[in-house]
Each structure stands twice: as C-alpha cells, then as structure tokens.
Amino acid sequence: MNARAVARRRAASPAAPGRVPGIALTAGGYHGTMGNWFPHRQTEFSASRERSRIQARADDLAGNDPNAASLIGGMTVNIVGTGIRPQSTLSAARLGISEEAAARLRDAIEREFARWACRPDLADAGNRLTFWQIQSLNLRTAMVKGEFLNLCVDRGDPYAPYSLALQVLSPLRLITPGDLTLSPHVRDGVHLGARGEPVGYYIANPDPLTGRLDVGLAANVPYYKAREAWRPVTLHAFPQIDEEQVRGVSILAPAMKLFRDLADYMDYELVGQIITAAFPVVIESDQPVAAGIGMDPRGKSRLRPAGREVREIEPGSVLHLYPGERGKTLDAPRPNSNFDMFVARHLRSAGASAGMPYEVGTKDFSKTNYSSARAALIEAWRVFQRYQSWLESAFCRPVWEAEVEEAFARGYIEIPEGAPPFLDAREDYLAARWVPPRRGHVDPVKEIEADIMALEAGIKNYSEVIETHSGDWETAFAQRAREERRIAELGLSFDLSGRAPDAAPGDETEEATDAEK
Length: 517
Prior knowledge:
three-stranded antiparallel β-sheet, alpha+beta, 13 strands, four-stranded antiparallel β-sheet
C-alpha cells in the first residue's frame, strides 16, 4: 500500500473547530452542602501565626493527651528504636585497593564513627545524648512540631578527640527579624537563595527570665549559614508536603480537632462515672413549710431546720430522715452504650491521618487475628520506612559525612596504599547504607520459613535477609565463623536442622485460630 492510498483513507478535511462542553462537577459548585465551602488561602504572615499556634497545640497534645502521646511515642520507637546504624559500603574497585584492604578500611571508618556517636560528651554539645538518642529526639520533634533544628558546633576543647558536636535547638527559635518581614528572601526565619534553597537561618535567643522570643532587629538575631562549603552548619529539616514549603507542619495537625474533642468527651464520661459511683441521693419532702411548725410528742421538730440539709453522703453512712422525707437515688447509666464504638471510630480516623492503622496506633490487637495483625504491621512498616529514609537523608548522612571527614583529617583512619587522597574521592570514602531497627514478627516461624524459601529460590540474598533483622551480613558471617570454630574446638554439637518440633496434642495452629475467630 503506497502513501497515496493511505491518504485516501483519511478524512478529507478536519472537523469544525470547537469543543463539546464537559459536565459541571459537583466539587466545583456551590450547591447544597457545598454552598458554604470557601477554602481560605494563607498569607505569609497568617501562615506563620497559624504554624506557631499548631506547634503550641501539638506540644500540648503530645504532653497531655494519652492517645496522641501513644501515637507519637509508638512511631518514634518503631522508626528509630535504639538507632539507625551506618554500614560503610565503600568500593574496593573504585578506590583501586584489594578487597581485604577495603574490608579493613570499612571497619576502621565504622569504628571511628561509633566511637564518636556512642559518647554523649562527644556527640552532644550539652553532654547528655548519644547520636542515636539525638536521632530519636529529632524525629519526635519533627512529629510534634513538624521540624527539627540542630547546629553543628565546634566543641572548642583541644583535648577532645573530635571537635564536631550537635546542639539540639527548638525550631520555635526560628524567627524573622522585625526589619526583614517585608524581605522576599526571608520567610519565617529562613533565608532563601535565588532558587528557593535555604542558605541561612535566623535563630533567636529566648529571654533568660521569661523565655519569650521577642522579634528584634536582624542585628540582634544571630544568623547561621546552612552550609560552609560542603560542610553542614545548620541542620533544619521537615517532611515536605507542599510545593513551596519552608517550615514543617505537625503530624498531629490533620486530626488535632479529633484528639481534642475525644479528650473532652472522655473527660465528661469519666466525670459522669465518678458521679454515678458516688451514689447521689436526693431528699424529697411532701410536707409544706407550715406543717413543720410546732413539736411532735417527743419534743422534736417536724421540719428539718434551716442549714441542716443533707449535702453529702459518706460511704457506709445511714440517713435518718424527718417525717415526710424520702431518699431517692439518681440513675445515671454510664458509660454510654456507644462509648467504645465512638472512641474506636475517632481513634481510627486520628491514626489514619498519620498513616497508622488503628491496631498499631492504639497498640490494641485484641480483636484481630494473625492475618489482620500482620496486614496492619506491614502497612505501618511502609510508613516507618518512609520516615527512616527521610531521617537518613536529612540528618544521619550529613552528620556521618562531617564526622568521618574529621576522622580522616585527624589521621585516625589510615588510607591504604594505592588509594587516592580523601578529598579526591570523598564520595567513595563516605559511601554507606543505614540499617534501621529490627522489624517485629507476628509469627516468627512463618516469616523465617519464608526467608529460607526466598534464599533457596534466589529471590533474596543473605544481605537482604539479615538486614530485615537489623543486622550487618559481614558482621553476622564473621561472628558465625568465630562461633563455629569455637564449637569445633570444644567438641560441641547442636541440632541446627531448623525443623520445628511436631505440635503437641491440643496445640492449635495460627490457621485454626484464625478460622475460629
């Protein structure tokens, strides 16, 4: 078929220009319940005030609301745990050295970093926290306040093995000086460059007596650069959820009203329970006032004297009523029949706003089976991995690079013969991966069997399997070799077939338990 024949099959001329109008979308209309929906766009000044208010409310929730505190604490423990640990992955081929020399160099780098990271008097400018604890604190601060703020300071101690130290600051101290509020390059305490990148920060000093952060002039608010050459000076980071965002937003913000309303509701229910438990009594009398005038034959008043009303009842007390009076208890059934359902529904919504399943956010697995619990943990772990990756790039890696560079500069790490100088191959020397805390297991037997099957099928390698258990495969294999040599020296023997013992009579499998549920 030639080109002329193909052309004959095409339309002789295009259709008339125009467009059939589309259907009007309810989302863009003002009908019914959408009639009063007018989203409000923030200005730069109102956004700053709103962020400060959200941070204050989030601080209050994290400190006083048990459900919010549980959500923040649970996520922090699962994301960081005892620390996200580095493992050097420098390449022997890229450095032009043998694999044995590269292994020794990796060990030396990791040893020097651990030497600094594990000592509060080296890692923390305040001598209180290790590097792993600063990880946890920064993550919690980012969860509550939406961001964290650290300064990389010079310890100034000539006798300290390292000069690098981290000063942990409250991000509330980031403030735009009063004479720069109209500057297009300064937003909410952050000095932005030509491409919108942060190049510096204005960090105010609180009043020593009141703690207030007064907005002064730029000359009175200390300014810190973001970086000095390639070295970090100020570490300020937040999980970015908006295109042009320069400050963080608390993870509690979307569900903040839910947390507050639920706390009020539970307080009211608790007060109602206390009143019910107090056995409230009302004294009723059918005697008119005049009927009490005079004395009965025994010389007692027929009417309760003024000021002698029954105002409270102590446990175990017996009431002696006057003629015509009756004691009546108030029936206030508590809790409400929908209490559990109402609370669970609110907690599901609040947890979902942070990406957490209800079971993980509340730590309540009482109504789940194996499959549901495992699905909830898998979903939660995806969220944990996202925050682990963010914390690694925003905090862990810059600190690792700064500390390891100082270790090379001070001569603590010897460069192997034939390898290039550190500054000529900086990225190769600093190559590393970060091992997160160990994942939990719902059924360890099943999950380990799945790992074994994946290894046998070639779907996974030992490095991937050991990493899921928060381990380093090289360290694990070296330790295993030492153990096997020692076992052989002592003439010991262990059954390492990996077979699970037969189930005892009466034992139930997970499948049977799930079926029953």
